[in-house]
Every structure is written in C-alpha cells, then in structure tokens.
Amino acid sequence: MMDLTQKQWVKYAVTHPFEGFEDMRWKKSGSVKIAMCIIVLLFFGQIACGRLYGAQFFISNDKTFNIIPYIVRSFVLFGAWVIGNWAVCTLLDGEGTLKNICIYSAYALIPYVVQLYINVGLSHILIRDEYIFMQLAEIIGTGWTVLLMFSAVKSVHQYSLGKTVFAVVLTIAAMLIMLFLLVLFMSLIQQVYIFISTIYTELSYRARV
Amino acid sequence: MKSKLKRCITATAAFAALASLGAVSAAAGEPYDSYNYDRWGEAVPSQAGFTAECSVSGYDLGVGAFDSPSDIFCDHEHIFYIADTGNNRIVAVNSDFESVVKVYDSFTMPDGSETPMNKPMGVYVSAENDLMYIADSDNARVLISDKDGNVQGMITKPDSEVYDRKRTFLPQRVIADKAGNVYVVLSNITTGAAMFAPDGSFMGFYGANRVEPTAKIVSNYIRSIFMSDEKKANRKRTVPTGITSFDIDGDFIFTCTSSSTQTTDTVKKLNAAGKNIFADLELSFGDYKPVYDTSQNKVLSPAIVDIDVAEDGCINCLDLTTGRVFQYDEDCNLLFITGAAAKQTGGFDHAAAIESLDNDLYVLDSSKDTVTIFRETSFGKAVHKAAALYNAGYYEEALEPWQDVLKRDGNYYRAYVGIASALLRKGDYKGAMKYAKLSDAGDIYNKAFEGYRREFLREHFTAIAAGLVILIAGSVTYGKFRKKRRASTAADNISEKEEKQA
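Structure tokens for the assembled complex are given below, as produced in the milestone run.
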C-alpha cells in the first residue's frame, strides 16, 4: 500500500487536503530537498509577480529594484513560521520535528506558488475586464494553501481540530515577536557598528598625525 | 591601493565638474537647471520651455524706479498695467516694454476734484466696458475709472449684515466678470472674495477655501461635541486661509492661496456658482516634494502667490518660496517649470505677480522692482502645439508634434502618453503598447493590448485551433497509453507473485 516515490508523495499530499499529510506521516515520507525547491520557487514567483506582470495590470518602477523585500517575504517569513511553529508546538506536546514541520509547510505552499506563476502568465493574456479570472485563481490558490497548511500542522503534531487552531494563532504571535526582536537586534547591531566605525575613524585620524 | 583610489576619486570629480559645466552651458545663461517631473513624481532634467530674455525696471522705461510693485495686468489691447504700490501710481506700458503709455498718479472724481491713490495693490481692465478697476488698498476702496483717469464709480466698505463692521476693508486684488460684477480679494478676510454688483452694492462672498482636515482639527471637532455652547463660543475658531490672488478666464475664476501650512485648495477653478471644479480631482500644484534649503536649514513649502490663465488656457502658477513659475495645460498637466530664487536675470527675490501675453511670461518682482520677460523657446512652442492639439482631442494630428517634442527631450513624460494615444487611435496597437509601457499609462496599454490580442487571434486562428486539437488529442491518447501500460505492469507483478508462490 502507498508505495509512492517522493515526487508522487508531493502530488498526493497536495491533492488530498484531509488525509494526505496523515498518510505521509504514517509512511515517514517527505524530502527536504523538494521543500527547499518549493521555497526557492516561491521566491522567484514573487519576484516574477513584482517585475514581469502584464503592463495593463501593473507597471513596476524599473528605476528601483530592491531584493530584500522579496527575501523577507519568502525565506525569512517561511523560516519564522517553521521555527515559530516548532517552538510553540514543542511546548504544546506536538510530535513534529523541525525537519517535518519544514517539509509539510513547504508542501502546503505549493498551490500558492503555482497560483503566482499562473497569474503572471494570465496577466499577459487577459485585459482589465477579465481580471476576475486572475482573482479567481488567486483566491483558489490561497484558500487551498491555507487549508493544506492547517492540515499539515494538524497531522505533523497529531493535534485535534481545536488545538490546531490554537497552535496556529500562537505561531503567528510567535512569528511577530521573532520579527520584532530581529528588527530590534539589527538596529542595535547597526548602532554598535556605527560606534565602532566612529572609534576607528577617530583613531585613524590621530594615528596619522 | 590608496593612490589608485585617490586617482579614481579625482577622475570622478573631474568628470562631475565637466558634466556640470556642460549642463550650465546647455541652460543658456539661466541661473537654474530646468527640470520636470516623471510618472513617479521624481524630478528629471528637462529642456527649458521659456528663456529669460531681459528684466525691465522703471529706469529703463524712463519713469523712475518702481517701489515694491505688486500687480501686473495685460488688457485686451495688449497694454500692461503695473500697480506701482510704493509710488502710489499705476504705470501703463506698451506690449514690448519699450515706452510708457500713461502714468496714473491720481484720478478725477465726478465733481472735478483730484483723488490720489494710497498703496494700490491690484489693477484690472475689463475688455467689455474698457474700464480700469484699481484696488486702492490703504484708501480702503476700489476705484472704477475710464482710461483717461475719470472715476466712474467707487466701491467702499459694504454696509451689510454679512460684512463684519469691525473688520478692515483692504482690497488686494480685483477682477470683473463679463456681466460687470466686481470681485475683490481682501486681506484679513478668509471667507472668500467679496462680490459686488455692477452698481457697487455688496452681494456676498465668493469661493471660500475649505479647512484642511488635519488630525488636530478632527480631534477638536470630536471634543466640541461634548462641550456646552458657552465654551464652544469662547474657543479658538478654525478658519481656512484666505484667497491670495485670482484671475478670470471666460466664465471661470481661478484662485490661488499662498499658505505655507495649507495644502488643500491652493489652486481652484471656480464656476459662476462658486463651486471648485478641481476639488474632486487629485491635483497638486507646485513642487511635489518641498525643497529643503541647506543654507536656512528649513523646508520650503510652496506658496503660490499669483495665478494667471493664458489665452490658450494654460495655467501659470507663481511660487514665491522657490521663485518658480509652474505652467500647466488646461487639464492641469505640468508643462514647464521656469525660474528660480536668484539674483541673476531669470531669478527672483520676491516674486509678486505673473501675467502672460501670447506665449510669453511676464513676472513682476516686488523686491528687485523689475518685470522679467520670459520668451517661449522652440521646445516650448513644440510642447504647446502638441498639448493644445491633444487636449482638443486631435490625437492623430498631435502625433507629429509629440514626436518632435520627444526628439528634443526624451525625458518628457507627456509626449509618450500623446504618442501612445495617437497610435492607438490610428490602429497601430503594437506601437501604442510600446509607448504606453514607456509612459506607464496602464489604461492606454490595456486598450492597445485588447486590440492587439484581437488582431493576433484573428490572424492565427487556424494555427491556434489546430494546436489546441492536437494538444487535446495527444493528451488523451497519452493518458490511454499510460493506463494500458500500468495495467499490464500490474498484471505482470501479480503473475510474478503467483509464480513465486508456486
């Protein structure tokens, strides 16, 4: 029963929102490599959404391109979700390991990533009056991802329905706290850096005389 | 390593110096670099639409220096009237600013006595009845006189319940409409311009500004809901800033307000009922971002002190803080930015008033006591021609002028929009898409793309249909083939297992 290759597991998990992740867990399947591929695709999909959209829907400012927001919206956000979920669910008797949470969450993101690429393609075929089709794709992709994510959290930790909701809310709160601390830490590092560089400049001026 | 870096820096500095020298020589002597705004609201270098030809003082005209003149007006016979405030006179100059037509020092009253002026601030000449209207500020009256200096009428502080008697009556600017109604901008009055009937009777106020809904005003309003009437009566009142200047163009009156704090209603286009036509359009006048002045360490917010509507409908706004003239077409698209705060010709100390004749600009400076004449450049001519055709709806006819504009200045954003619209009208969808994308005009691109897609589908319909049929047929047969193979492998597996068991 269920002798699927890793690629077939991806298809199975995405197309079976309710039991897909349970079966995956039962078979101890899932690959970190594929999960990383999905996150890289998410990153490029978001860049494509920002840069390659059809000009009738959205014109990007070619003068400025900053890659940092795209990195934050893909890698950093996903990392915060995985670590936040792991931190919260370890306290809430969750059974998932960090690796499993990472794999399952990445698999759950597939509909959203696919939707990004489909919309970039559609934006070059449709006109403004037909925007509803793109909205439809977006709503279906996002909704499906939310459903899968919920199911992933539920099965990776073997939670009941209510506890999953609780865990998701706590995870989001944990993500916010982590990002806040990250920003705080970065600004502090910046201050320290400025302090040290000022001292260095001062010393270098003195040393020369 | 260090010497290499140093050499690199010196090379860059030398290049920058060369580049700036080149820019100065390109600007043909003006003490500023001309610029315009692109689609993203960023200032980009641009060709100059106007060039400062000369500045004319009272000495040049032979009537003695002006003393803080405050208004200039050009009448229908192309005679310029300058309100020479400090000298208490009105100077009429011919259209090439070479000779003085007449100097009005005093006017003859109907009873034969002479009446001098005291700080005249504004002057207007009506094309309908050929009468001069003078805002005789410190005498607290508006004089209506014929061109020979005989007073035909006078407007003084109105004796009306609407007009608070405690307030002063200091006319700053005056205009009259076709019907002979007189509009007067008064200092210290924030409820709009005072409107008078042709016979001089007070009719009420016209075109008041709105109060800008800042956070403080909103919170004050919420607090006032819970207050008693006595407390409310004793509170500080919130009043809008008053009108600074205005101009009339046919049936519409354009007003401007030079407040450094207020950003709503700085420029208005009022119809006969006093309704602002610009109110619901999201327009901004003056510089997009306030200019930061390093020498004074403060942000210079725009203060539009005078407005002028040219015969072709262009709106000229004069900004006091930066000394710049912002010219807009009748649809309020920015055409040119001219002038600067500088001592040289083309720059201003205290720009006071602006007037236009044909396509030239005349700017009055009340501190330098001169009139600076800006002539339209050939680039300015090209843009004016293209914009006029475009605004009148002649998109295809405007194609060539816009292309001419683009040849001279590749940064001119409006030219791309104009060319995209023209090509779209002509049915050249691909070209329209290209220019619409360059001008970031999504709506034009959308229409052009719709046409392009329709043409593409019509041309390649058979190929697309054939491709679709082949694709569907291929996928169906592949699916069947796969199913068959899977079934056969499964059968093989079962037979193998059976063999093993056996």
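The radius of gyration of chain A is 22 Å. Chain A has one domain: 6-208. Further analysis is deferred to the final report.
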